[in-house]
Amino acid sequence: MTLIQSPAWKALSSHFDESKQQHMLDLFAADPKRFDKFSIQHGNLLLDYSKNRITEKTMPLLMSLARQCNVESWRDQLFSGEKINATEGRSVLHVALRNRSNSPIMSDGEDVMPAVNAELDKMRGFSERVRSGEWKGLSGKAITDIVNIGIGGSDLGPDMVCSALKPYASDALNVHFVSSVDAMQISQTLSQLDVETTLFIIASKTFTTQETLTNANTARAWFLEQASTTEADIAKHFVAVSTNTDAVSAFGIDTDNMFRFWDWVGGRYSLWSAVGLSIILYIGMDNYEQLLAGAHDMDQHFKTAELEQNIPVIMAMLGVWYTNFFEAESQAILPYDHNLNLLPMYLEQADMESNGKSVKRDGSAVSYSTGPIVWGAEGINGQHAFYQLLHQGTRVIPADFIASVQSQTDNQHHADILASNFLAQTEALMRGRSLEETQAVLDGLDISKEEAEMRLPHMYFEGNQPTNSIVMDKLTPYNLGSIVAAYEHKIFVQGVIWDVNSYDQWGVELGKQLAKNVLQEIESGEDKFEHDSSTNGLLSWFRQHR
Ligand code: F6P
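# 6-O-phosphono-beta-D-fructofuranose complex -> structure
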């Protein structure tokens, strides 16, 4: 039986047909306890999901689907180190990296916790030496600048967390992220740096990624070009983060200066591993451990809470409701906290690289939509840019509004304006503005009746746009850890429902392979290419204009 023929899916289909026209405003009017029924608090986090197009029947039906798809048993397999990433023959154990209870977690019959803890200890020691100034650069000066060279999961997570937790950072250290192979980024970064006080972290799970190794080589060449440096100084200024010891050695980094992680950590789930080294240097190990603790707390919640009371499961099943029944194509991420402005980009990779799949675990094609297009930006700026489409466009766009209540500054007035916009936007998206209300607004304007009639349909808002409000008391390392872990588990649950492997990413390979051939063609003297006419034409144009 396929998913869409299953009893739980069919029940949801019928429920969708009978409830899809209902307006949330009417549902709120009919039930004063709607917020209490459809919100959940965990620690200092609140998920209000009452502004969704759900009735009291919807959540039980969604949870039946989750049970029918064996979410609980998949969850157990994840935590017990089963090789659920079957296409790569790997366990999926980012939860072990933040397992603060230190209970054994097995992979291939071996408890991974001693190795995880040893690496954490090594990072603590190293970061304390760098942050205290005990680690000296080539001329005996302390390190002032950290440059993380990585891309994808070896960049987005650390960059997002460093940006989010800036208020917890040391004033003595700056952190820079270089990911693009466009030389503009690394040259702009290098131009700000003093070779004597810069530490490069080359972060790459595979240590084969073209962009990262190209940037790493450029950084090393820049380092060695400086009058004061020698090859021997590299050890004081370059460290590596990888699973690939041989490639790190081959690159010329002493493996004593290498921080390890394991193939059971997916790149987009790796900020909790040694890939977090730039975070640790920036905010210190104690704060990083708080980040891990917050994630672990969410792991425990996800692992033990009933599906009905389980934040990641609720978020996941609401996403399934919109993707598969409302045929929503995207999921917006709208943080109302300036320091979370990289979260949408981070979640784009986490979600789309995980669930952007069209083949089931058994290799057959899916007959339903899978991962949504995830997009977003800082909400307050979006209001003055793309929210028009959320308010009056033609699509259903589920949106996660994410806010921290306590400002990291002492400017309460700014914080209140931000909060009022957060609250007003989710209310406006839900309630809309009826024709009568719009007419009343027009009646108050000094315009002719004809003008008012003409404007009426343009100023009417249908509303009924679904939002989740995810609110924390403050953007602390702990809360950030919890939120990111909640999204990771949401993505996992959706992958289980859609029966896809959320932990491989074969789709990124083809472009990489073709790029290697095209690079040779761009740099060769040849002018005859054997691609399609578009690629041939573009290639010639690039060659003529380079
Ligand atoms: O090409 C995609 C990808 O493999 C991502 O999955 C990964 O996060 C990124 O590239 C970087 O990979 P690595 O850490 O091995 O350099």
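# post-check
The two ends are 56 Å apart (CA to CA).
The first strand starts at residue 39 and ends at 42.
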